[in-house]
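Task: fold both queries, return tokens.
Query 1:
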Amino acid sequence: MKKLLVGAALVLFLLVALIILLPFLVDLNRYQAQYRPIVEEALNRKIELKDIRLTIFPRVGVRVAGFIVLDDPAFRAGPFASLTSLDIGVKLGPLLSRRVEVEEINLRDPVITIIKNAQGITNLSTLGKKGLWAPKANEPDPPAAEGPLRALALLLVDRLAVTGGKLTYRDQAPAKPAEHVLQNIEVLLKDMGLGKTPTIHVAASVQPQNLPITIDGKAGPLKESLDIEMIDLIIGLGKIALSVRGNAIRGDLKLAVTSPSINTADLPVALPLKKPFEAKELKLAVTVNGPQARLQSLSVNLFGGQLTARGGLTYGLPRPPFDGNVELHGIQLGPVMEAVGTDKASISGVAALDLSLRGTGLALPDLGKTLEGPGRFQIKEGKIEGVNILKEATALLKPIGVAPDAANATVFSTIEGNLAIEQGVITFERLLMDSHDFQATATGTLGFDKTLNLKATLNLSEALSNRIAGASPTAKFAMAGGRLSVPLVITGTTQAPSYGLDTKAVGAKAQEQFKEQIKEKLGELLKGKGTPSGGAGADKGKDILKGLFGQ
């Protein structure tokens, strides 16, 4: 019995020793000549591998060290991706039954560099492909049917972890190349496997903004078809929290995004604002089907009112076509001007806007050429600071003795009109302004470069017209229907407008009034046609002619 126990202990000792020495006895590197070409063919990349060996502790598996995937030579000679080590742990029980079930995958210090060249092609486009790939005019990116998600699902991974990762994106397409970096990437995915709904945790830092981002939630269940029936995530961008829910079925992605509050000061991009503002109750719904992305609905409360929008975009093209509609209701223009900032003129009031747009390309030069669409706007109970339209109009009447108003603002009850956008120009088809002292109508254009070319007519109120006519009898010449009318031409820019009399309109009006006066005077003269020569009627006729011709 004693010998039996000693023999069993010896066997157990040898077995343990064999297990401990197994990673050193089995050299997996000798098989690189067999599996390296397979991996390189699958990735369409050359790879470098420092070491690969079996592991026993903390779990049975394989450790790959110093793994490098070289980049496409058309982009650069450096690595596309690398990692310090890759640990794959398998379950011991199924392994004894000759089944391999992956329990855990750990990637340490993965580094990936994505490059977009001057032609708009990324080094991702040739990963797993032969030759450089570029999309045709109407051809979207091909679907990634054999992507990493499917591979992980088929592996039945219980846990996937990434620590110390770094992702760099270099855009060499614009005139001034840009680089964005995600560093300190931490990823933890649990319950990765077919039929399971993984829990997700991602944390990283965006540079150079030094913006922390987090993603927490669930998405699944995982299927071989890559359909995801449920997406429920909380995305944190610094101080901003977004709730994202939706699904991805048969290639159609549907997402609903909400946020209780977003302050522009917390956004990861710098906006050209003088003062940050807060947007509340953000709600948007997005669908993506192939190359077609549609904003089904967007609503957000800001500046005391509400913005709603919808539209669509065809992506994957150098100049993507788009269309959309924007509506504003109850927007307070005063806070808008404070946020945007203005050196001279500013406007206050409650605004409403309904604008339909379509165009091609998202860069400013493209928008200046292709953006077009009709719209309608209205502003109530407001003031234009820095511009007094009445003052500018009456200043043009100085030759007839009208003193301009001293105030440097225009108070109005309503401004409304129709507009059309085309080739970088906003055309006002009908613009009306109603104020206590005048009513104005205008047509003309406003360029994206802020240049003005407007023709306007100010019809002063009866009270103001009579007051001006009383101070300057000559002003009666410009009156019609008891009101003084001033035709204007407004040129220059929105920050430095220039005002002048519309001489053509003045001339036409003068001719019309001159004809009316001739008819009136001749009518009076003809009435005295039967008066005896040298009598009172003849004297009256002479007085009329003198008054008519100024003699």
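Query 1 returned. Query 2:
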Amino acid sequence: MPIKPPVGGSTHVKVDASTSPTRPADVDIPLPGPSGRRGSGSGLSADDSQPRAGSSRAVDADATGATPAVIIHATPVDARLLAPQPTLDHYVINARALLPEANGEGLRVFNNRTYAEVADGDFVHVAVDPETGLHRARRPSELLLGPVMLRDADSGFWYPRTVVEPTTRAQVRSYLPKATDQHADDFIARFGDKDVADVELKRIQLGLLQLDYEHVSIPDHQNRILGKHGVDEAFAMWSTLRKLYKWKSKPDQRVYSDGRLSGFKLDINLTLWPVDKLLSLKFNSVVSLTLRGHAPLNPEVFFAQFPNIESLTVTSQMITRSTSDASMYEHAYSRFDLGSRFAEQLARLPRLRELNLQDCDFQDDFSLRGMTRLQVLRLGKIQAARLNHYPDDLRARLSLQHPSVVLLTDPDISGMTELRVLELTGSGIHRIPIGLDADNGPSRLEVLRLGDNAFSVAPSLKAMTALQELDLSNMRLDRFPDGITDKIPGKVLNLANNRIAAIPESIELRAGFSLSGNPITDPASLRRLIHARIKTGADIWLGEESADRSANLWLRNVPPLELPEKLKLWDSFGGAASDVINGIRKLSRTPEFHVEHPLLQRRVWWFLDAYTKAEPSEQARMRDILLNEPSPGKMLDRLEAQIREYDSGRQNQPLHHLPKRPKLN
């Protein structure tokens, strides 16, 4: 009868110096374990003299008695010793009389608790680590998990792991024989721990039979015609699922986190999704999921198949369906219905950090509450599902009035303290999102995009000290938001196409600001915008282009005697269709047009006169500037510089003083 493996005692690890050059010879490393206690978790008996297959340790041939020594052999990748672990004294109980027989995994379950036998009569309460899938010791009264427990295949006893061995290609191929080196390396990049890899590889092996092609069934959703293209897409999607299940993918499907492979992307056309299949499989490799279209999903079952989702996108899908005339077909969009059951499952996904809901239908009971771990939230082109219940003519009129959205309620982001990106562009909200201005609001927010929504009060930025980008364009704002400083926002402030007429003196205009399309009429503000363009090299503001295509735009207060000559010069360019005339008209958008018009007008006539006297090659270069320079003010500066460079004799000196450039700090 073999001697029972001890639970405690001072077991020693003897390192083979010949395979571990960084360690001195004959060094004994004591393993954790209480002294004087009967039995050890090693699961090895005294008469074991050879290493066992599947065991992470081997017995020294010179070992005698009940205290075996373990030799750690070098592997292709260095194994590492764990830091000292809590001793099993904290976990061991004697409960053989109470526990049922062991199941297929060598575990005993009693009152919904799982126990692993570490010696004859001694047991440890264990729980599965959700991060690794390994069993770890645990005290029933504590939530914290203790040492990882492994089972010895020969004795059936469990023991605490002391060495983490690396995953190898050979190990991967023992479960996936057709794995290439790249496939194996991708798997190892995610599962470098041999024991953790073994759990995942066993799970994959058990589920592969369910992914055989012969089990593909294409759903027959109402009013949808698949055709050959749809059938091909369905089989291609099934093939992709099979590969991702085995942690195999194309390069563009890989997702990296901090430079390491974390998983893969998956795009699902729900109109082809086999909703009655794969109910027991988990696609652990999928961390970024896109759902297109609609299918009658059971949210609880569906999301159980994708437990590791970090990024989720839901959007529409173009489908072909039959009309009232069965011989005719029309194209339509299939949109996903978002209700409370779907939202509840989203809130339960432990890794979900990014949520993108685009072109979907919202049910009345949909809410974002509870998704406090989100870091990125994007809502756009959301339509209220209730519109679908209206008659066609009324629904059409409502869609014209609200072309992009109709959110039934404003989104509630209360408690989303981890939020880094909030994008609600064109989502139809009519006020600041609930919780955005709260004391426990997203103070770490870096990107806030609320453009294309019809509300007139901007959020305060005072608490958003990390904000880098703010987009409040195409709204109804008549003033700057509170809290703008020389550092907030750090990079971008987009207030284009609002109702702002003046710029507060306290606001420093800098690169990254955009005020175009606002009715700015304050002369001081316009002059500041001229100086800002000179300083930053870009237009912060441009007004509406004048509709006047005649020379009258540039004939203010011109003496009557000069009019015939100027009109003749203007007509020489061929009228309003001329590239030169159209380019010059862009200057009506500049601040100079409003506060420096006399000077701007003289510069325009000087340029036109110089252009007519230039050679064809020089005219071609100037025409290129007129057509391709996006900034009207910079365009005129470049044209004048081009003329002065070409006129080496400086014969065509301007008949006006060029504007002085202010000295800016």
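Both queries returned. Flag for query 2: The chain is about 25% helix and 15% strand.
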